[in-house]
From TrEMBL:
Protein's organism: Usitatibacter rugosus
Keyword hit for Cell inner membrane: yes
TM spans (from-to): none
Keywords for the protein's UniProt record, in alphabetical order: Cell inner membrane, Cell membrane, Glycosyltransferase, Lipopolysaccharide biosynthesis, Membrane, Transferase
Entry protein name: Lipopolysaccharide heptosyltransferase 1
Compartments where located: Cell inner membrane
Pathway(s) this gene product operates in, as recorded in its UniProt entry: Bacterial outer membrane biogenesis; LPS core biosynthesis
Length: 340
C-alpha cells in the first residue's frame, strides 16, 4: 500500500533549511509510513538528500532566475521543478517557511496545503494561500516553530530534543589535517563578524593544544579573508573550494567548530559536532545554535565575546577572576573594527 505522501516547502537559506531537518525526523518517528518530498533551492538539494527519510529533493532555481533573468537553463530547470511538483498528488503540502515565494511554490503542488497563520508567518500574505493556517508562537526558536507546525498538522506532541537526522560522509576530505577545528569566520553581514585579531589569537592558543585551524571561504572576498587569517595563524590552512556535502564531511570529523552566525555553523550542530556560535548582532535565543549540550551560544545583539570567553567555552583557558560588578565579558560592538 502506498504511504502517505508529504511535500515540505522550505526553500532557503542554508540555516533555515537546516532548522527544518528535526521536523522531518519527528514525523518519520511518529508516522514511519510517510513518503517525504522536499522543495528546496537547488543549492541546498544535496544537503537535504543527506537525510535518509527524504525520498525526493525537488530543486527549485528561484535564486538563479532572480540573478540571471535571461538564462534559458534557469527557466528550463524551473519548468522541470514545476513538473516534479505536479507529478504526484500529495496528502499534505506543508510550507514551513511562511513567505510569499514559498506559499506560491506550495500552490504548484496538488494536495491540501498547510502553513503558519497571519500572526505566525514571516510574511502575513503567505497565509492566504493555505487551506489550513495554524498558529505557532513566534517567541520560540526557529527549530521548535518548524517542529510545532508539523506536529500540529499531524496531531502529535513534540517532547524530545531535536534530532537533525542527516548522515554525513564517513570520512574527512583527504586534505584535512589529523586534528583540526573549523573556523567559520565568514558571514553575509559585516556586523556579524568577529574581529580578525580575535580569530588569530584564538588560533595561537588552540595551536598550543595541538589543534590546527581550518578556514573555509565561499566568495572571493571570503576566500581572501580566509587566506589572510590562515597566513597569520600558526599551522593553519585555507580550505579549498567545497560543495556543501564536502563541507559536511569536513565539519563532521572536526574536533570542534567555532563559527559566527552563518548557515555552516548550524550545519555543524546538525552533524552533532561540538560547536560554539559567536553572536554579535543577533539574538541567539530565536535563531542561535539549537541542539543540546554540544551547541553553545556566546554573545548577542550588540555584544562581542572575548577570546578568553571563547577559549573557556571550548574547554581551555583558566576561569575568570571574580568580578562582582560584571555580568558578562562580552564587549559592546565597536562601530569601527579597526579601532582598538
Amino acid at each position: 500500500m502506498a504511504g502517505t505522501r508529504v511535500l515540505f516547502v522550505k526553500l532557503s537559506s542554508l540555516g533555515d533549511v537546516i532548522h527544518h531537518l528535526p521536523a522531518v525526523t519527528d514525523l518519520c518517528a511518529r508516522r514511519p509510513e510517510v513518503r517525504i518530498h522536499w522543495a528546496v533551492e537547488e543549492a541546498y538539494a544535496d544537503l537535504v538528500r543527506l537525510h535518509p527519510a527524504i525520498e525526493q529533493a525537488i530543486a527549485v532555481p528561484l535564486r538563479r532566475i532572480r540573478s540571471h533573468l535571461a538564462s534559458r537553463s534557469a527557466w528550463h530547470d524551473l519548468s522541470a521543478a514545476r513538473r516534479n511538483l505536479g507529478r504526484h498528488p500529495y496528502d499534505y503540502v506543508i510550507d514551513t517557511q511562511g513567505l510569499l515565494k514559498s506559499a506560491l511554490v506550495a500552490r504548484l503542488a496538488h494536495g491540501a496545503r498547510f502553513g503558519f497563520d497571519r500572526a505566525s508567518a514571516r510574511e502575513k500574505i503567505a497565509a492566504r494561500f493555505y487551506d489550513q493556517a495554524l498558529p505557532v508562537a513566534r517567541d520560540q526558536h526557529a527549530v521548535e516553530r518548524n517542529r510545532r507546525l508539523v506536529a500540529d498538522v499531524f496531531g502529535y506532541e513534540v517532547d524530545t530534543l531535536p534530532d537533525y537526522g542527516i548522515a554525513p560522509p564517513p570520512s574527512a576530505p583527504s586534505w584535512a589535517p589529523p586534528r583540526y577545528y573549523v573556523a567559520l569566520h565568514a558571514t553575509s553581514r559585516a556586523d556579524k563578524h568577529w574581529p580578525e585579531a580575535h580569530w588569530i589569537e584564538l588560533a595561537k592558543r588552540l595551536a598550543a593544544q595541538g589543534l590546527v585551524a581550518v578556514y573555509p571561504g565561499g566568495s572571493a572576498a571570503e576566500r581572501n579573508a580566509a587566506a589572510r587569517l590562515a597566513q597569520q595563524s600558526p599551522g593553519a590552512m585555507l580550505a579549498p573550494p567545497m560543495s556543501l556535502v564536502e563541507a559536511a564531511a569536513l565539519l563532521s570529523q572536526a574536533d570542534g567548530v567555532v563559527g559566527v552566525d552563518t548557515g555552516l555553523t548550524h550545519l555543524a550542530v546538525a552533524l552533532d559536532v561540538p560547536t560554539l556560535g559567536i553572536y554579535t548582532a543577533t539574538d541567539p535565543a530565536l535563531t542561535g545554535l539549537h541542539g543540546g549540550p554540544k551547541a553553545v551560544n556566546l554573545g548577542g545583539k550588540g555584544l562581542v565575546p572575548s577570546v578568553d570567553e571563547v577559549e573557556r567555552a571550548l574547554g581551555y583557558g583558566s576561569a575568570p577572576e571574580a568580578e562582582p560588578e560584571a555580568s558578562s565579558e562580552s564587549a559592546p560592538v565597536d562601530p569601527d573594527p579597526a579601532a582598538g
